Amino acid sequence: MPVPFHLAIAVTSLAQANSFYGTLMGCEQGRRSEQWIDWNFFGHQLVTHLVATMPILPEPNEVDSKAVPVPHFGVVLSMNEWKALAQKLVAAEQAFVIEPYIRFEGKVGEQGTFFLLDPAGNALEFKGFADDSQLFAK
Predict the structure, then answer these.
(1) Of 27, 53, 68, 121, which is least surrounded by CB within 10 A?
(2) CATH topology of domain 1-52
(3) By its UniProt entry, which SUPFAM superfamilies does this protein fall under (predicted)?
């Protein structure tokens, strides 16, 4: 298993973070206080820290003629895990910034991808690879 990352992000409501990361995304909750919650985010440590207001974000970046939010973070899943999560989110009527689709279909680096925002406006990308050796392929 790769070394887990630790990422701390701002949120404006811990209750909304709990609904999104805990209930919708199915992440296990770890330690918490009145100011933050630790999450097992697909084997990585994500901490949602309570703030009064969110920072102003830069303009999106164009990729595949789509407006990709910057900054963003996420995880790389197996293609089966990616498809299952995408189906779960579609069934839950989750709004997407960029709906699930396959990039580089039939080419080096073929991957599924989708983007969404958490309730605080943090952008997340989820990628799925049928062949994880293609992650850094050129």
Answers:
(1) 53
(2) 2,3-Dihydroxybiphenyl 1,2-Dioxygenase; domain 1 (3.10.180)
(3) Glyoxalase/Bleomycin resistance protein/Dihydroxybiphenyl dioxygenase
